[in-house]
């Protein structure tokens, strides 16, 4: 009986040690996840500041004046206002996700918040890539439809099917290259953070089993 009592005591010690270890692991993963989501929130703010600064140097008003179609400026302004409104909504969601992860005390809730944050960031990246594609297509349409210099060029190559195909191919490659660069930018910027966040999720899943 004495040996059995000693064995029970050792078993209880091991259980207590395991519980403390899991609590410490959860605390560490909680802090790491909160820090990652905070950086996602900060980077999104820095990103919108960056695009705002860039838009100041690349003003569409001068271009529209040069092609004598200032009336198109209202469409650019509407697109810009819509884009900023959507991005501000995403920034609010990032902040909301950060507050949710920072204050949660449940492993299951933390796992749900991580997945929710991951999905929000993925939607944000796809939205931005879609806006880049739309902006490029809109810009090319304005150039082809309203820029007299481009119109003269198109008239010269209009009867040459081979040159027309090459021209269209070049524009498609330009759009693909820009989308590829932006995709790489977002993959390096947000993708790295999301991979770390998902690694935390997998570690939490092990604890929750």
From TrEMBL:
Keyword tags: Membrane, Transmembrane, Transmembrane helix
Bilayer-spanning residue ranges: 36-54, 74-95, 124-144, 164-186
Protein name per the record: Beta-carotene 15,15'-monooxygenase
